[in-house]
Amino acid sequence: MNNLNFFSSELYIMSNNSAKSTDLEYNDSYANQVNEIINTLELDSETDRSILKSRFLSEVVKYEQRKLHTKKYYDRFRFIVTVGSIILPAILSLGQMDPTKLPKNFDQVVYWSSWTISLMVTASNGFLQLFSLDKNYFEYSLTTEQLKTEGWQYFQLSGKYEDDKTHQAAYKDFSKSIENIKRKQVEKEFSGKGDVSKKKKEKPFDFQVELMKNLPDHLKPEKDKGDPDIEHGESKMKEIDLMMNDKIGKLDTLMGMLEKKNTERDGAVGNGTVGNGTVGNGTVGNVREILSDSIKGQILEASDEAVSNAVDKKA
Coil, strand or helix: which one is 71? Predict the structure, then answer.
């Protein structure tokens, strides 16, 4: 009877220890730990608390599951590729031995074994590349650890959140960081598969222009510190001056051609018509003076108008 009681008590203790170990393992999971921490945070509303659970905690759990699921196939295929790459050369090297010392039908065994191993290695490597198992496994692992690290920094108010006094003050920055991590992961996962965004044409970088924009006023050249209206007026004056010189040059060319024609005509007629040639030359000179004065007058009026407009804008 005593032995029976002792056995029952030992069985009860073992069952209790087993239950405690199960509870301890369950409570030590990341999801339960973080869920308890979120419930104790001092937040202004329950909505913020629910968002933390739905958008942060659920994302960590989801990426953790994706990582483990991908890791299962990644490890299997990598194991086949690695082991097969080691065994295949060893099997092929056995075929180089003396046939008399090898078992019967050994060449067929070697052939089919090497063919099978080669097929398995090629297929496994093809599946790895086709489904991007290695890339997805590394990205899921990296994203999971980034989310966990961001979460622990927020809960502890350390790292980038050390300047915030409360969790509510750091709530928006934390949410923004989580969304950035999630967005970068989505862009990596679907890069080149559904990109409908149009890339904006970036203007070529002009070092001189950017340097002038960022220079202090006292370091800028004098021409960059002037009044834009006065500078506009000065540029207009230069344009008018160039136009006047061009008009006068064309007029001189025209008058020269007329004088040349009159001179040729006077030489053909003779001495009796010298007076007429003199009169023609005088007429050409008068026309030059009249046209020159007219052009100069128009250009001066235009220049006065440009200057007066600049002065009015300045006033």
Answer: helix
Task: Give 209: exposed, middle or buried? Use CB within 10 Å, 0-12, 13-18, 19+.
Answer: exposed
85-98 pLDDT tens trace: 999 998 888 877 77
3-state helix, strand, coil in the chain (%, to 5): 85, 0, 15
Q: State the angle between helix axes of 133-156 and 58-94 in degrees (0 to 180), rounded to the nearest 10.
A: 140
Secondary structure in 3-state letters for 187-234? HHHCCCCCCCCCCCCCCCCCHHHHHHHHCCHHHCCHHHHCCHHHHHHH
Locate 252 and state its tokens: 């001189």
Helix, coil or strand: residue 237: helix
Residues 6+ apart with CB under 8 A from 64: 30, 144
Distance of CA 229 to the CA centre of its chain: 39
Q: How far apart are CA 60 and CA 178, in angstroms?
A: 10
Q: Are 128 and 78 in contact, with CB atoms under 8 Å apart?
A: yes
Q: What distance in Å separates the CA atoms of residue 43 and residue 164, rounded to the nearest whole number?
A: 14
**pLDDT tens digit sequence for 164-211:** 999 999 999 999 999 999 999 998 888 755 444 445 455 666 656 766
CA distance 76 to 132: 14
Residue carrying the six token digits 């968002």: 51
Domain definitions of the chain by residue range: 41-189, 226-314
Report yes or no on whether pTM surpasses 0.70: no
Q: How far apart are CA 158 and CA 164, in angstroms?
A: 9
CA distance 143 to 245: 72
How far is 262 from 260, CA to CA, in rounded Å? 5
